[in-house]
Specification:
heterodimer; A: about 160 residues; alpha/beta; elongated; B: about 160 residues; 5 helices; about 15% strand
């Protein structure tokens, strides 16, 4: 009996570790959001901090995040268009920002974006040394807004 | 001696059970990583193994995103693409490729690198599907093939990426 109890505890620890290692996991509200970061330069910590801030400050937004988002992905930037579509810019390795559609620049500078048709939020990777409380605050606000976008997409689709 | 037939039966059952588990694991792995299967839309797309460590599930998430976010583009992918190769090809890391070959006369094979995540994977699938459509429609050689397809991936990015 004791042997089975030990095995059960070990299994529980392994499962718990697996659920937590690559994600935000909050078993009390059945919330698990996978967090994808770059293998070498990525850090899940600030993303977890931003989610924790949302949970603390805005419970309805946290519920929306848990319900309508299943993955947060850290990327270099959000691309809301392809500059190569403009024949003048095609094939250029370095494109001057002034030549690019301002909407694309705004998307690249945004803290994050939501991909319609998915439950994925993309967060922009912070610049070198750009972490800290300021980053957590900006990301928390972005998560609230983008979770609302996901909710709006999926609810609108059901109607 | 008397126990032998029962022992043999048990061994046979154990072998069958092990075989069953192995087959089940193989089927689940196959379906999870190498096949996109949408029964409702009668859409089956094979995926080749990824050799550079990026997860084939990115391709599946990209197809699921198109399915819900842009059903018209999803239908085009299902109609014109049979196989997706998730490995970097002539488009390099973060790019894609379509080969104008005899093998692609029917539903085609497209190369789609997944290195830049979900957004670009969706865009590259739409871009390469555009080339497959051009090829299947027998567009004349002087047709500006790239211009149309860059326009297509630009369109899908603008339609799906919401940042404000």
């Amino acid at each position: 009996m004791r042997r089975y109890a030990i095995m059960a505890v070990i299994a529980l620890v392994v499962v718990w570790g697996w659920l937590c290692a690559f994600a935000w996991f909050d078993p009390l509200v059945f919330c698990r959001i996978h967090i994808d970061v770059e293998l070498l330069e990525g850090d899940r910590g600030p993303i977890r901090d931003a989610i924790a801030l949302v949970r603390r400050e805005d419970p309805p937004a946290y519920r929306a995040l848990c319900r309508w988002v299943d993955r947060i992905q850290e990327e270099r930037q959000c691309d809301a268009g392809d500059p190569q579509a403009d024949p003048r810019l095609r094939g250029q390795s370095a494109i001057a920002p002034s030549a690019v559609d301002p909407a694309l620049i705004r998307a690249r500078e945004a803290p994050g974006c939501y991909v319609r048709g998915s439950r994925t939020i993309v967060l922009r990777r912070p610049p070198e040394g750009g972490g800290g409380a300021g980053l957590v605050r900006v990301r928390a606000e972005a998560l609230k807004r983008l979770a609302a976008n996901s909710r709006a997409f999926w609810i609108g689709r059901v109607r | 001696m008397l126990g032998q037939p029962a022992e043999g039966r048990n061994t046979r059952w154990a072998r069958r059970a092990v075989l069953g588990v192995v087959v089940a694991v193989a089927v689940v792995t196959m379906v999870r990583y190498f096949v996109w299967w949408d029964v409702g839309a009668r859409c089956v797309i094979g995926m080749r193994p990824s050799l550079v460590g990026y997860d084939n599930t990115t391709i599946k998430r990209a197809l699921a995103t198109l399915q819900s976010g842009s059903p018209e583009d999803y239908r085009k992918v299902c109609a014109h693409v049979a196989t997706i190769n998730p490995n970097p090809s002539c488009g390099g890391f973060g790019g894609g490729c379509f080969w104008h070959s005899e093998g692609n006369r029917g539903r085609a094979s497209i190369d789609v690198s997944t290195e830049h995540g979900l957004i670009w994977t969706v865009a590259i699938i739409v871009h390469e599907t555009c080339h497959a459509i051009q090829y299947h429609e027998g567009r004349p050689p002087w047709f500006d093939l790239e211009h149309e397809c860059y326009g297509e991936d630009d369109r899908i990015l603008r339609a799906l990426v919401q940042f404000e």
